[in-house]
Amino acid sequence: MIRTRSLYSDGSRLRRSALFALPAAWGAMAVAWRFACPPAREPGLPMRIAAGVVFLSVGIGLVLGVRRGLIRELARARAVAAATQQVLLRPPPGRLEGLTLAAGQLSASRGASVGGDLYEAVATPYGVRIVLGDVRGHGLAALGAVVAVLGSFREAAHDEPELAGVLRRLERALERHLRERARDEHPARAGTDPEHPAAEEFVTLLLLEIGPDGRLAVFNCGHPAPYRLGRKPERLPVGDPLPPLGVLPLPAGLAPHTAARLLPGETLVLHTDGAEEARDHRGRFFALDAALAGPPGEAPAALVRRVHAELLHHTGGRPADDVALLVVRNDRARVPAQPAEPGLRRPRPAPSSHC
User: What is the pTM for the complete model shown?
Assistant: First the structure.
Protein backbone atom coordinates (compact mmCIF):
# COMPACT_ATOMS: atom_id res chain seq x y z
CA MET A 1 0.00 0.00 0.00
CA ILE A 2 2.82 2.41 0.92
CA ARG A 3 4.66 1.62 -2.29
CA THR A 4 1.52 2.18 -4.35
CA ARG A 5 0.86 5.55 -2.74
CA SER A 6 4.48 6.54 -3.28
CA LEU A 7 4.32 5.69 -6.98
CA TYR A 8 1.02 7.56 -7.32
CA SER A 9 2.40 10.68 -5.62
CA ASP A 10 5.60 10.51 -7.70
CA GLY A 11 3.50 10.30 -10.86
CA SER A 12 1.40 13.27 -9.76
CA ARG A 13 4.52 15.36 -9.13
CA LEU A 14 5.90 14.42 -12.54
CA ARG A 15 2.64 15.41 -14.24
CA ARG A 16 2.56 18.74 -12.41
CA SER A 17 6.19 19.37 -13.38
CA ALA A 18 5.41 18.54 -17.00
CA LEU A 19 2.70 21.22 -17.04
CA PHE A 20 5.35 23.95 -16.85
CA ALA A 21 8.24 22.25 -18.65
CA LEU A 22 7.48 23.49 -22.18
CA PRO A 23 6.43 27.05 -21.21
CA ALA A 24 9.54 27.32 -19.02
CA ALA A 25 11.71 26.22 -21.95
CA TRP A 26 10.05 28.84 -24.18
CA GLY A 27 10.65 31.52 -21.56
CA ALA A 28 14.32 30.54 -21.16
CA MET A 29 14.82 30.70 -24.92
CA ALA A 30 13.18 34.14 -25.10
CA VAL A 31 15.33 35.53 -22.28
CA ALA A 32 18.48 34.04 -23.81
CA TRP A 33 17.58 35.57 -27.18
CA ARG A 34 16.92 38.97 -25.60
CA PHE A 35 20.21 39.20 -23.72
CA ALA A 36 22.56 36.98 -25.72
CA CYS A 37 21.61 37.71 -29.32
CA PRO A 38 23.33 40.92 -30.59
CA PRO A 39 20.47 41.96 -32.96
CA ALA A 40 18.03 41.88 -30.07
CA ARG A 41 20.04 44.60 -28.26
CA GLU A 42 20.16 46.98 -31.17
CA PRO A 43 18.12 50.17 -30.75
CA GLY A 44 15.29 51.04 -33.06
CA LEU A 45 11.60 50.46 -33.43
CA PRO A 46 11.81 47.30 -35.63
CA MET A 47 13.87 45.43 -33.08
CA ARG A 48 11.57 46.52 -30.23
CA ILE A 49 8.61 45.23 -32.20
CA ALA A 50 10.39 41.96 -32.84
CA ALA A 51 11.25 41.59 -29.15
CA GLY A 52 7.63 42.34 -28.20
CA VAL A 53 6.37 39.73 -30.63
CA VAL A 54 8.75 37.15 -29.17
CA PHE A 55 7.70 37.82 -25.57
CA LEU A 56 4.02 37.91 -26.53
CA SER A 57 4.40 34.53 -28.19
CA VAL A 58 6.08 33.18 -25.07
CA GLY A 59 3.26 34.52 -22.91
CA ILE A 60 0.58 32.97 -25.10
CA GLY A 61 2.45 29.69 -25.14
CA LEU A 62 2.75 29.75 -21.38
CA VAL A 63 -0.98 30.32 -20.91
CA LEU A 64 -1.95 27.68 -23.47
CA GLY A 65 0.45 25.14 -22.00
CA VAL A 66 -0.80 25.63 -18.46
CA ARG A 67 -4.41 25.58 -19.63
CA ARG A 68 -3.90 22.33 -21.54
CA GLY A 69 -2.29 20.72 -18.52
CA LEU A 70 -5.02 21.87 -16.17
CA ILE A 71 -7.68 20.51 -18.51
CA ARG A 72 -5.96 17.12 -18.46
CA GLU A 73 -5.74 17.18 -14.66
CA LEU A 74 -9.42 18.12 -14.42
CA ALA A 75 -10.36 15.25 -16.72
CA ARG A 76 -8.38 12.84 -14.52
CA ALA A 77 -10.02 14.21 -11.36
CA ARG A 78 -13.48 13.79 -12.88
CA ALA A 79 -12.65 10.23 -13.89
CA VAL A 80 -11.53 9.45 -10.33
CA ALA A 81 -14.70 11.05 -8.92
CA ALA A 82 -16.88 9.03 -11.29
CA ALA A 83 -15.09 5.81 -10.30
CA THR A 84 -15.47 6.71 -6.62
CA GLN A 85 -19.18 7.29 -7.06
CA GLN A 86 -19.59 3.93 -8.78
CA VAL A 87 -17.94 2.23 -5.79
CA LEU A 88 -19.61 4.22 -3.00
CA LEU A 89 -23.01 5.02 -4.48
CA ARG A 90 -23.35 2.34 -7.08
CA PRO A 91 -26.71 2.44 -8.84
CA PRO A 92 -29.15 -0.05 -7.31
CA PRO A 93 -30.21 -2.93 -9.53
CA GLY A 94 -33.19 -2.15 -11.69
CA ARG A 95 -35.11 -5.13 -10.28
CA LEU A 96 -34.96 -6.80 -6.87
CA GLU A 97 -37.39 -9.57 -5.92
CA GLY A 98 -40.20 -8.09 -8.00
CA LEU A 99 -39.43 -4.48 -7.01
CA THR A 100 -38.35 -1.82 -9.51
CA LEU A 101 -35.72 0.59 -8.17
CA ALA A 102 -33.92 3.77 -9.20
CA ALA A 103 -31.73 6.25 -7.33
CA GLY A 104 -29.74 9.40 -7.93
CA GLN A 105 -27.86 12.15 -6.11
CA LEU A 106 -27.15 15.85 -6.59
CA SER A 107 -24.03 17.09 -4.82
CA ALA A 108 -23.94 20.59 -3.33
CA SER A 109 -20.15 20.79 -3.84
CA ARG A 110 -19.51 22.34 -7.21
CA GLY A 111 -17.66 19.96 -9.49
CA ALA A 112 -18.15 16.97 -7.17
CA SER A 113 -20.24 13.94 -8.03
CA VAL A 114 -20.29 12.51 -4.50
CA GLY A 115 -21.23 14.06 -1.20
CA GLY A 116 -22.63 13.30 2.23
CA ASP A 117 -25.70 11.30 1.17
CA LEU A 118 -25.76 7.51 0.97
CA TYR A 119 -28.10 4.78 -0.24
CA GLU A 120 -28.06 1.07 -0.96
CA ALA A 121 -30.56 -1.72 -1.63
CA VAL A 122 -29.84 -5.45 -1.43
CA ALA A 123 -31.88 -8.65 -1.65
CA THR A 124 -31.37 -10.91 1.36
CA PRO A 125 -32.99 -14.12 2.66
CA TYR A 126 -34.96 -11.90 5.06
CA GLY A 127 -36.37 -9.54 2.43
CA VAL A 128 -35.19 -6.56 0.41
CA ARG A 129 -33.27 -4.27 2.75
CA ILE A 130 -32.70 -0.60 1.98
CA VAL A 131 -30.74 2.17 3.67
CA LEU A 132 -30.77 5.87 2.83
CA GLY A 133 -28.91 8.37 4.98
CA ASP A 134 -27.48 11.84 5.26
CA VAL A 135 -24.15 12.67 6.90
CA ARG A 136 -23.95 16.01 8.70
CA GLY A 137 -22.34 18.40 6.25
CA HIS A 138 -21.71 17.68 2.58
CA GLY A 139 -18.97 17.29 0.02
CA LEU A 140 -15.72 15.37 0.24
CA ALA A 141 -15.32 15.84 4.02
CA ALA A 142 -18.31 13.54 4.65
CA LEU A 143 -17.03 10.63 2.55
CA GLY A 144 -15.40 8.87 5.50
CA ALA A 145 -18.71 8.43 7.31
CA VAL A 146 -20.39 7.38 4.05
CA VAL A 147 -17.78 4.67 3.54
CA ALA A 148 -18.15 3.43 7.12
CA VAL A 149 -21.95 3.18 7.07
CA LEU A 150 -22.31 1.73 3.58
CA GLY A 151 -19.54 -0.82 4.10
CA SER A 152 -21.15 -2.02 7.31
CA PHE A 153 -24.62 -2.20 5.75
CA ARG A 154 -23.47 -4.28 2.79
CA GLU A 155 -22.17 -6.93 5.17
CA ALA A 156 -24.73 -6.75 7.99
CA ALA A 157 -27.77 -6.81 5.70
CA HIS A 158 -26.90 -10.39 4.71
CA ASP A 159 -25.60 -11.55 8.09
CA GLU A 160 -28.18 -10.27 10.56
CA PRO A 161 -31.55 -12.05 10.63
CA GLU A 162 -33.14 -9.16 12.56
CA LEU A 163 -33.26 -5.61 11.23
CA ALA A 164 -32.33 -4.32 14.69
CA GLY A 165 -29.03 -6.18 14.41
CA VAL A 166 -28.27 -4.37 11.14
CA LEU A 167 -28.89 -1.00 12.79
CA ARG A 168 -26.59 -1.78 15.70
CA ARG A 169 -23.84 -2.80 13.27
CA LEU A 170 -24.19 0.55 11.51
CA GLU A 171 -23.92 2.38 14.82
CA ARG A 172 -20.74 0.51 15.79
CA ALA A 173 -19.16 1.15 12.39
CA LEU A 174 -19.79 4.89 12.66
CA GLU A 175 -18.41 4.97 16.20
CA ARG A 176 -15.19 3.30 15.03
CA HIS A 177 -14.88 5.81 12.20
CA LEU A 178 -15.31 8.77 14.55
CA ARG A 179 -12.73 7.40 17.00
CA GLU A 180 -10.17 6.80 14.26
CA ARG A 181 -10.78 10.24 12.79
CA ALA A 182 -10.37 11.83 16.22
CA ARG A 183 -7.02 10.08 16.73
CA ASP A 184 -5.79 11.16 13.31
CA GLU A 185 -6.85 14.79 13.64
CA HIS A 186 -6.12 15.35 17.35
CA PRO A 187 -3.70 12.82 18.87
CA ALA A 188 -4.30 12.20 22.57
CA ARG A 189 -1.91 13.96 24.91
CA ALA A 190 -0.95 12.76 28.36
CA GLY A 191 -3.33 9.81 28.11
CA THR A 192 -6.47 11.96 27.82
CA ASP A 193 -8.99 11.88 25.00
CA PRO A 194 -9.00 15.27 23.24
CA GLU A 195 -12.05 17.18 22.22
CA HIS A 196 -12.49 16.94 18.48
CA PRO A 197 -14.87 18.21 15.79
CA ALA A 198 -15.59 14.65 14.71
CA ALA A 199 -17.69 14.27 17.84
CA GLU A 200 -20.25 16.58 16.23
CA GLU A 201 -20.56 14.40 13.13
CA PHE A 202 -23.68 12.27 12.90
CA VAL A 203 -25.80 10.44 10.36
CA THR A 204 -29.58 10.49 9.95
CA LEU A 205 -30.94 7.49 8.09
CA LEU A 206 -33.88 5.29 7.20
CA LEU A 207 -33.39 1.54 7.41
CA LEU A 208 -36.22 -0.59 6.08
CA GLU A 209 -37.06 -4.10 5.00
CA ILE A 210 -39.72 -5.05 2.45
CA GLY A 211 -41.18 -8.50 2.98
CA PRO A 212 -42.61 -10.77 0.27
CA ASP A 213 -46.14 -9.57 1.10
CA GLY A 214 -45.14 -5.89 0.96
CA ARG A 215 -45.03 -5.52 4.73
CA LEU A 216 -42.54 -2.84 5.78
CA ALA A 217 -40.25 -2.90 8.80
CA VAL A 218 -38.77 0.57 9.33
CA PHE A 219 -36.21 2.21 11.61
CA ASN A 220 -36.13 5.99 11.42
CA CYS A 221 -33.04 7.60 12.93
CA GLY A 222 -33.90 11.30 12.79
CA HIS A 223 -34.59 11.21 9.05
CA PRO A 224 -37.50 12.63 7.00
CA ALA A 225 -40.25 10.08 6.49
CA PRO A 226 -40.62 8.77 2.92
CA TYR A 227 -43.55 9.35 0.61
CA ARG A 228 -45.86 6.60 -0.60
CA LEU A 229 -47.35 7.23 -4.02
CA GLY A 230 -50.72 5.65 -4.60
CA ARG A 231 -53.65 7.75 -5.66
CA LYS A 232 -51.73 10.75 -4.29
CA PRO A 233 -48.44 11.34 -2.43
CA GLU A 234 -48.71 10.76 1.31
CA ARG A 235 -46.27 10.47 4.17
CA LEU A 236 -45.56 6.91 5.18
CA PRO A 237 -46.01 6.28 8.92
CA VAL A 238 -42.65 5.19 10.34
CA GLY A 239 -43.24 5.35 14.08
CA ASP A 240 -41.37 7.36 16.69
CA PRO A 241 -37.93 8.47 15.47
CA LEU A 242 -34.72 7.26 17.07
CA PRO A 243 -31.75 9.64 17.56
CA PRO A 244 -29.36 10.03 14.62
CA LEU A 245 -26.39 7.71 14.70
CA GLY A 246 -23.45 9.33 16.47
CA VAL A 247 -25.50 11.66 18.70
CA LEU A 248 -26.77 9.36 21.44
CA PRO A 249 -26.50 5.58 21.96
CA LEU A 250 -29.40 3.57 20.61
CA PRO A 251 -31.84 2.30 23.25
CA ALA A 252 -31.42 -1.20 24.59
CA GLY A 253 -34.68 -2.45 23.12
CA LEU A 254 -35.10 -1.92 19.39
CA ALA A 255 -38.29 -2.80 17.51
CA PRO A 256 -39.01 -1.63 13.96
CA HIS A 257 -42.29 -0.02 12.94
CA THR A 258 -44.29 -2.66 11.06
CA ALA A 259 -47.73 -1.10 10.58
CA ALA A 260 -47.22 0.01 6.95
CA ARG A 261 -47.32 -1.91 3.70
CA LEU A 262 -46.31 -1.26 0.10
CA LEU A 263 -49.10 -2.73 -2.00
CA PRO A 264 -48.66 -3.87 -5.62
CA GLY A 265 -48.57 -0.84 -7.89
CA GLU A 266 -47.56 1.58 -5.12
CA THR A 267 -44.30 3.52 -5.10
CA LEU A 268 -42.09 4.47 -2.17
CA VAL A 269 -39.85 7.57 -2.41
CA LEU A 270 -37.00 7.89 0.09
CA HIS A 271 -35.20 11.25 0.15
CA THR A 272 -32.76 13.34 2.15
CA ASP A 273 -33.74 16.65 3.71
CA GLY A 274 -31.95 18.57 0.97
CA ALA A 275 -34.90 17.84 -1.31
CA GLU A 276 -37.42 19.61 0.93
CA GLU A 277 -35.12 22.36 2.21
CA ALA A 278 -33.95 23.55 -1.22
CA ARG A 279 -34.84 27.20 -1.80
CA ASP A 280 -35.07 29.48 -4.78
CA HIS A 281 -33.70 33.04 -4.99
CA ARG A 282 -36.76 34.32 -3.11
CA GLY A 283 -36.30 31.88 -0.23
CA ARG A 284 -39.24 29.66 -1.13
CA PHE A 285 -38.90 25.94 -0.34
CA PHE A 286 -39.10 23.29 -3.02
CA ALA A 287 -42.53 21.59 -3.05
CA LEU A 288 -41.41 17.98 -3.10
CA ASP A 289 -44.88 16.54 -2.56
CA ALA A 290 -46.21 18.44 -5.58
CA ALA A 291 -43.24 17.32 -7.68
CA LEU A 292 -43.89 13.68 -6.81
CA ALA A 293 -47.44 13.89 -8.17
CA GLY A 294 -46.35 12.95 -11.66
CA PRO A 295 -48.07 11.07 -14.46
CA PRO A 296 -49.69 7.74 -13.55
CA GLY A 297 -47.45 4.71 -14.01
CA GLU A 298 -44.26 6.78 -14.15
CA ALA A 299 -41.14 4.60 -14.01
CA PRO A 300 -38.87 5.11 -10.97
CA ALA A 301 -35.90 6.17 -13.11
CA ALA A 302 -38.03 8.74 -14.94
CA LEU A 303 -39.36 10.04 -11.62
CA VAL A 304 -35.82 10.56 -10.29
CA ARG A 305 -34.74 12.43 -13.42
CA ARG A 306 -37.84 14.63 -13.45
CA VAL A 307 -37.64 15.57 -9.76
CA HIS A 308 -33.93 16.36 -10.05
CA ALA A 309 -34.59 18.55 -13.08
CA GLU A 310 -37.38 20.44 -11.29
CA LEU A 311 -35.21 20.89 -8.20
CA LEU A 312 -32.29 22.26 -10.24
CA HIS A 313 -34.65 24.65 -11.99
CA HIS A 314 -36.02 25.77 -8.61
CA THR A 315 -32.55 26.45 -7.15
CA GLY A 316 -31.04 27.94 -10.28
CA GLY A 317 -28.76 24.94 -10.73
CA ARG A 318 -27.06 25.32 -7.34
CA PRO A 319 -28.66 23.35 -4.48
CA ALA A 320 -27.40 24.37 -1.06
CA ASP A 321 -27.30 20.79 0.23
CA ASP A 322 -26.80 17.30 -1.16
CA VAL A 323 -29.98 15.69 -2.46
CA ALA A 324 -30.51 11.94 -2.76
CA LEU A 325 -33.59 10.10 -3.99
CA LEU A 326 -34.30 6.38 -3.96
CA VAL A 327 -37.54 5.17 -5.54
CA VAL A 328 -39.04 1.70 -5.09
CA ARG A 329 -42.13 0.49 -6.93
CA ASN A 330 -43.87 -2.74 -6.00
CA ASP A 331 -44.36 -4.57 -9.29
CA ARG A 332 -45.15 -7.89 -7.69
CA ALA A 333 -48.30 -9.49 -9.05
CA ARG A 334 -51.34 -9.57 -6.85
CA VAL A 335 -52.16 -13.02 -5.52
CA PRO A 336 -55.32 -14.13 -7.34
CA ALA A 337 -58.25 -15.61 -5.47
CA GLN A 338 -57.93 -19.38 -5.22
CA PRO A 339 -60.69 -21.31 -7.08
CA ALA A 340 -62.77 -23.90 -5.27
CA GLU A 341 -61.53 -27.47 -5.41
CA PRO A 342 -63.15 -29.68 -8.07
CA GLY A 343 -66.13 -31.69 -6.87
CA LEU A 344 -66.98 -29.28 -4.09
CA ARG A 345 -70.16 -27.30 -4.50
CA ARG A 346 -71.73 -24.69 -2.37
CA PRO A 347 -74.79 -25.98 -0.50
CA ARG A 348 -78.02 -24.78 -1.99
CA PRO A 349 -80.27 -22.69 0.24
CA ALA A 350 -83.25 -24.53 1.72
CA PRO A 351 -86.50 -23.88 -0.17
CA SER A 352 -88.76 -21.41 1.54
CA SER A 353 -92.09 -22.74 2.76
CA HIS A 354 -95.33 -20.98 1.89
CA CYS A 355 -98.39 -21.18 4.04
Answer: 0.70
